[in-house]
């Protein structure tokens, strides 16, 4: 008997969806390390989650295995790794106050609305800052507060600004220069985290 008869969702099991699911695994490992107050390891796992997020779309395109299910799966993983994980970072690592709480709510709402919006429309080009790039900028701000003693309100302002950028109208090519810039910035940040 095929497993799909017992577990119907398994009919969507393919390489791109497995890559997306690996992103969730890395996100859960990042969350685990946050509970251990280990921001360094958490960021390393979030970096690998971001790599999976980038790779799943490329793999789906190359293998011609793009499906609505894969799009929804990717959205759910993105919401956890890119919208919820920054909240964990603040709760576990920073002295929070009403400003940072409001900023967290605003950021996560903007991420949620952005992800929902791109599930509704089909577009070759995105507008605004994608959630993986947003998560990276927020993670950098949290790292700077936690490691270098920058005031917490700076992270709160970053949450507000990045939230607005996610919903903004500026145009980004789906696989354009901005992705290379963010990939380079992410790699540099990862090296700083590892060797600092």
Could you list some keywords that capture this structure?
196 residues; mainly alpha; Four Helix Bundle (Hemerythrin (Met), subunit A); two-stranded antiparallel sheet; 8 helices; 2 strands; 78% helix
Molecular structure report:
78% of the residues lie in helices and 3% in strands. It has 196 residues and is mainly α. The chain has a single domain (12-195), classed as Up-down Bundle (Four Helix Bundle (Hemerythrin (Met), subunit A)). Strands 1-2 form a two-stranded antiparallel sheet. Helix 2 packs antiparallel against helix 3 (39-63) and helix 5 (98-120) packs parallel to helix 7 (152-167). The protein starts with a helix and ends with a helix.
Can you name the CATH architecture? Answer: Up-down Bundle
* Strand segment count: 2
The major β-sheet equals: 2 strands, antiparallel
User: CATH H-level name... which superfamily?
Assistant: CDP-alcohol phosphotransferase transmembrane (TM) domain
CATH topology descriptor: Four Helix Bundle (Hemerythrin (Met), subunit A)
Q: Number of domains in the coordinates?
A: 1
Helix amount: over 70%
**What string, H for helix and E for strand, traces the elements in order?**
HHHHHEHHEH
Poorly predicted runs of 5 or more residues: none
Q: State the name of the first-level CATH class.
A: Mainly Alpha
In terms of DSSP E residues, the strand content is under 5%
Shape: globular
Gyration radius, to the nearest Å?
A: 17 Å
Query: Class by helix and strand content?
Result: mainly alpha
Number of helices, where a helix is a run of at least 4 consecutive DSSP H or I residues: 8
Question: Termini, distance in Å?
Answer: 53 Å
Return the average pLDDT rounded to an integer: 87
């Amino acid at each position: 008997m095929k497993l799909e008869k017992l577990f119907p969702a398994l009919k969507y099991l393919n390489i791109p969806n497995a890559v997306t699911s690996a992103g969730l695994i890395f996100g859960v490992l990042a969350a685990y390390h946050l509970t251990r107050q280990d921001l360094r390891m958490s960021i390393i796992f979030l970096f690998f989650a971001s790599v999976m997020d980038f790779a799943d779309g490329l793999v789906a395109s190359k293998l011609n295995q793009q499906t609505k299910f894969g799009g929804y799966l990717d959205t759910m993983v993105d919401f956890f790794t890119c919208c919820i994980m920054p909240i964990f970072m603040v709760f576990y690592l920073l002295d929070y106050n009403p400003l940072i709480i409001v900023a967290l709510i605003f950021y996560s709402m903007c991420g949620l609305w952005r992800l929902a919006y791109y599930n509704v429309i089909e577009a070759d080009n995105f507008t605004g800052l994608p959630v993986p790039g947003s998560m990276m900028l927020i993670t950098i701000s949290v790292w700077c507060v936690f490691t270098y003693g920058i005031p917490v309100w700076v992270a709160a302002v970053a949450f507000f600004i990045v939230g607005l950028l996610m919903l903004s109208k500026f145009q980004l090519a789906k696989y354009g220069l901005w992705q290379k810039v963010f990939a380079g910035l992410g790699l540099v940040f990862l090296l700083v985290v590892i060797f600092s």
